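Friendly challenge for the regulars: who can give me the structure tokens for this chain first? No prize, just bragging rights.
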Amino acid sequence: MPTPRNTKPSSRKPFVYGAVIVVAAGLLGFASYKATAPGNSSTGTSTTPAAEVSADPRAGIYPELAKLARRDAGDKLAVGRADAPVVLIEYADFKCGYCGKFARDTEPELIKEYVQDGTLRIEWRNFPIFGEESENAARGAWAAGRQGRFWEFHAAAYAEGAKEKGFAKGRVKALAQEAGVKDLARFMKDLDGPDARAAVAKDQEQAYGIGATSTPSFLINGRPIAGAQPKETFTRAIEAAAEQAKTTAGAGSTGDSAK
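First reply, four minutes later:
Bragging rights claimed.
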């Protein structure tokens, strides 16, 4: 779970969630340390899950963070039903090796098991923290999404060996072509346009606002998880969140019927 070589100016204005921001920042920071501490595996995950998921489905959940889910049916950088009971928000950088590991090894399994049955929605947030090439790739992903090819671009950019080739603009254009983006002239115009820059900046601000300092970082219905954790960590969090959503919905139905 890499930490940024370059940090943003201290004038950045984080979102304000009161005490929630302090707790979330602490959780994400501690998990970042655990996942990269000496003695952990060099494969990109820690030997001990950094994000412990309690058996209590309500533990470690911050409702204000859950509200960051956009649930926009037209969001090209998301997959899954807009009304899915569980939303996983991923803050990631295309130059991040741990993000690539999650994208190749874990995310496809989560999509197969939980997105396809309507339980889970995954919402991507561009969180470029490694400089100009990270920014290029982030804007390129957004531009690919404008033509309905975000997830194909995502797969191409996270393929084995892709990040080693860098993300100069020519390389990003090649990835777009590989992803099946049809109008490459429009793609390059969108990549350098103000809308792409604004969209990426908005995601960055949100990530810094919740205390994320490394990639990947996740929220699952308001539960912070940091790092490319084993699939079981995500499975426990998703199933706990789904159970809590079911319980909450059931309680609401009971209350309505009692009126």
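The CA atoms of residues 67 and 222 lie 8 Å apart. The chain has one domain: 19-258. Your move, everyone else.
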